[in-house]
Design a protein that fits this description.
Length: 409
């Protein structure tokens, strides 16, 4: 409780970010610091990081070769590395979750490429982004054609030097093209506000949902008596065990509660605004954070498409370009080798819509029945690899044969 002999202007607007106010509310403003791992304790930030990392981790990645059309690669040695087990300690899902999480926290995510004695890639290992430094050798001090060096310090303090083609470097927004910006650093003020709000509400519940107030005394008290009264009054009136209990005041004392304006609609509106601003910076839609106030069944599907177009597409393109450039040989790149994340799982429509699109595709002659079945993870059927066109569903190469007399001679 705040002890005072005089009460002045109790209706004055209160700034939730005021350091003196935070101290009075039991929140140490210096303790509301924002760093990479510490930011995970803020609910909105954690929610955004979870949405992005979970989304990337569940997307299948496939290898292709573009040669007079597109052909899936099923026997390339990199396929099990990217799709199943990038290293002995991680599944592909855990690997991509870790990579995307670090990219969003630090602005950069680094993966060491492990080569065998024959120069083939045998493993991909995520590194702690906070322990990595990038150096640009633009004057040739190291007598190498390699201009970018990555220096990594492990947990034992040992330093490891990597050339540019030995590290997969995935970036967030970047000003110089060499390193990414941390969204958390850029949003530090907003995240601090969010953490302050959460701590205030937690303290509010710890105090038994009771508000703070001022105690007015018409006489005079020495500092020792004032402190003794304050301690005893807080003991009797604070905490969940004292919720709804009546505290007795001696004659001459008057308790004046401060109105609950910090937890009224304006406070909640400001808190909601902070949540929306953080979500917007990460490119996450509000329904993905379980905020369904403005959501309907139809606009959630539309928002999911917007999430892919506005947020996910650029992230996946960045991943795909870095993977192709660092993992494939130059000859393979020239031959049209590339990787692609399959986003069908997040854009997947209802079964009626999907089957209707398959029907149009098969009857239009631009996908086969087996290609449609593969999208539904169904077994291929004999004869299902032939392209058909509408009109008795004949093979496309036989279109027009019925109009010929006796066929070609």
């Amino acid at each position: 409780m705040l002890f005072s002999r005089k009460i002045k202007n109790l209706t004055t607007e209160i700034d939730i970010n005021d350091k003196e106010l935070l101290k009075w509310l039991g929140i140490n403003p210096d303790d509301v610091n924002v760093s990479g791992s510490n930011s995970l304790k803020q609910a909105t930030v954690f929610g955004c990081l979870r949405v992005l990392s979970d989304t990337v981790s569940k997307l299948p990645i496939k290898l292709y070769k573009k040669d007079n059309g597109v052909k899936k690669l099923t026997n390339h040695y990199l396929e099990p590395l990217l799709k199943l087990r990038p290293n002995p300690y991680m599944s592909a899902s855990d690997f991509w979750k870790c990579v995307e999480l670090q990219r969003n926290i630090d602005g950069n995510s680094y993966v060491a490429i492990d080569f065998n004695s024959n120069g083939k890639i045998k493993g991909l290992y995520p590194l702690d982004s906070s322990n990595m430094k990038i150096y640009i050798d633009d004057v040739g001090l190291l007598n190498s054609n390699n201009k970018i060096w990555y220096i990594y310090t492990d947990n034992l303090g040992n330093r490891h030097k990597f050339m540019n083609d030995e590290i997969l470097h995935f970036k967030g927004l970047t000003l110089n093209g060499l390193s990414g910006l941390s969204v958390i650093d850029e949003l530090k003020h907003l995240i601090e506000n969010g953490k302050s709000s959460e701590k205030y509400i937690n303290n509010f519940f710890k105090n038994g949902l009771q508000v703070k107030g001022l105690v007015q005394y018409v006489g005079d008290l020495n500092p020792q008596a004032e402190e003794t009264f304050r301690t005893e009054f807080e003991r009797m009136s604070s905490g969940l065990k004292n919720a709804h209990r009546i505290a007795m005041l001696p004659i001459g004392y008057q308790f004046q509660p401060i109105g609950q304006k910090l937890v009224d609609a304006q406070f909640l509106e400001n808190t909601q605004l902070t949540i929306r601003q953080i979500a917007s910076a990460f490119g996450v839609k509000m329904h993905q954070l379980n905020d369904l106030d403005r959501a309907t069944h139809s606009n959630i599907a539309e928002q999911q498409r917007e999430f892919y177009i506005d947020t996910l597409q650029s992230i996946l393109t960045m991943y795909e370009q870095e993977l192709v450039y660092k993992l494939f040989l130059n000859s393979e790149i020239l031959d049209g080798f590339y990787v692609k994340f399959n986003v069908d799982s997040i854009l997947r429509a209802d079964i009626k819509t999907r089957y209707e699109s398959y029907r149009i595709g098969v009857q239009g002659g631009f996908i086969t029945a087996n290609e449609a079945r593969e999208l539904e993870e169904k077994e291929a059927l004999p004869g299902g690899d032939r392209l058909l066109v509408n009109g008795n569903m004949m093979p496309i190469e036989m279109a027009g044969e019925q109009y010929k007399k006796g066929g070609d001679k």
